[in-house]
């Protein structure tokens, strides 16, 4: 279970972005989190991805409460969660080729030797052709770069996947391809999904259930 319990978070403790948000995702479940821009849903997604320490509340991951964040979190917890952000160009190191971008988590965890084999599986799974893998971010489209970012998120075979407005900047065909790649991965692995967005139609079609941001807050004690 991925459980966010009465979370308060922001970037200034004197003025949190939101108070008391609660949300759960069961193993194998896909949950959409729907809300307008600026409401705080992306900050909650960063808390769920162990990238942002909340001011109050708890994150429980697979039955264990998270007590450290970012690089200080235990490796087993860090690698249990894969995340895809809205803007691939700010999430990708411009110096890396797409192949190196996909392999980045393996290098960071001392598993560089697995990079070629894992990349060979993931690149076609997300719709990247071999000729694109040697290019750098400025040499590919936003959609192609987001495909690489999705592959990077899947590299360590996470049990939980967080997609924060993953398709907001993409055309309909690329959106459909990325959603299909996520669902194929989930079918094969049983991973849980938290998909954050503002497109109700997409989230309703994609996810087992969709939670409105206001209801996420209302669920807090």
From TrEMBL:
Pfam families: ABC_tran (PF00005). One of its GO terms (molecular function) is ATP binding. Residues 2-218 form the ABC transporter domain. PROSITE patterns: ABC_TRANSPORTER_2. The keyword Transport applies. The keyword Lyase does not apply. It comes from the Bacteria. This is ATP-binding cassette domain-containing protein. The lineage of its organism: Bacteria, Bacillati, Actinomycetota, Actinomycetes, Kitasatosporales.
């Amino acid at each position: 279970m991925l459980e966010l319990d009465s979370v308060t978070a922001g970037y200034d403790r004197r003025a949190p972005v939101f108070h008391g948000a609660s949300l759960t995702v069961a193993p194998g479940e896909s949950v959409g989190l729907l809300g307008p821009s600026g409401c705080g849903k992306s900050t909650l997604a960063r808390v769920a991805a162990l990238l942002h320490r909340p001011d109050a509340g708890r994150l429980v991951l697979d039955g264990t409460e998270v007590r450290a964040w970012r690089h200080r979190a235990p490796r087993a917890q860090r690698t249990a969660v894969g995340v895809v952000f809205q803007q691939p160009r700010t999430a990708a190191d411009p110096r890396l080729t797409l192949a190196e971008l996909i392999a980045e988590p393996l290098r960071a965890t001392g598993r560089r030797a697995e990079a070629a084999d894992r990349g060979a599986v993931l690149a076609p799974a997300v719709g990247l052709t071999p000729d694109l893998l040697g290019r750098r971010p400025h040499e590919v489209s936003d959609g192609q770069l987001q495909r690489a970012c999705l592959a990077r998120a899947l590299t360590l075979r996470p049990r939980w996947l967080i997609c924060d407005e993953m398709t907001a900047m993409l055309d309909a065909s690329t959106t459909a391809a990325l959603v299909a790649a996520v669902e194929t991965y989930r079918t094969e692995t049983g991973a849980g999904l938290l998909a954050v967005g503002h497109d109700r139609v997409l989230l309703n079609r994609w996810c087992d259930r969709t939670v409105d941001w206001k209801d996420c807050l209302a669920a807090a004690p």
